[in-house]
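Fold this sequence, please.
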Amino acid sequence: MRNLRAEEAQYLTILKQAATVKDMMLVGEQLSQVRGRIEQQQAEFNALSHQVETVSIAISLRTESEAQAFGLNWRPGFRLKLALRDGLDSVADYATAMTTVLFYLPATFLWVGTILIGVTASWRILRWIGKRWFETKPAPAVQG
């Protein structure tokens, strides 16, 4: 915006010094273009300033107290809680995987069935073609 306003001021200075009508018209056109860009920038700025909201975030940090017994980091309850949470997460992951497999089984069976039917049909067609065109017929036996 500052640059556009400075450009506008320069064009106004040049317009005051213009001697011919042609110069005045050229400078007037440039001045109107700059003013149009200023108005456009101002409108964009106003629209954006109405959209901006102030957000406040409060963060509080605290350290976890560490119980020490005989110089050791002794927290069996915390460790038990972590182990229980990890175990439950594992059971949930297993249940999710099994549910997914069960839901995909019908689609998998359909695909396998379709492929087997296609392979069986192709095999029968190839055998039929082989028997029809490539099978040699035994020569008639000569009686003596």
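The chain has a mean pLDDT of 84. The first helix runs from residue 2 to 17.
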